[in-house]
Amino acid sequence: MHTKHEEESPPEFYAGSLTFAERERLPAARQFEGLREEIAVLRVKLQTAIEKHPDDLKLLTHGIETLVRAVSAQYRLSPKARKDLADNMANLLNSLGDQILPPDR
To answer: How far apart are CA 105 and CA 101, in angstroms?
Structure first.
């Protein structure tokens, strides 16, 4: 027998911690797969931090570590990302092979 708490879906579980405006944005946020958009935002924020505080090594290190963790998580969690990584690696190896031994030989 399940309790009401166990049957709640994650959006209902988190709803109490969100503002009304945030709850209204949930449907759009659910449309994303993976962390692509979040990683893009992190990159933009990191670039801004570098421009505004180029000497703040602690801030920059934290930003880079956060970005690395997000990218790592995306590749660990997403089968599509794994396939994309494998495809990119295959393309890279083919390109290197073509440079070493051109295909017209």
So the answer is: 7
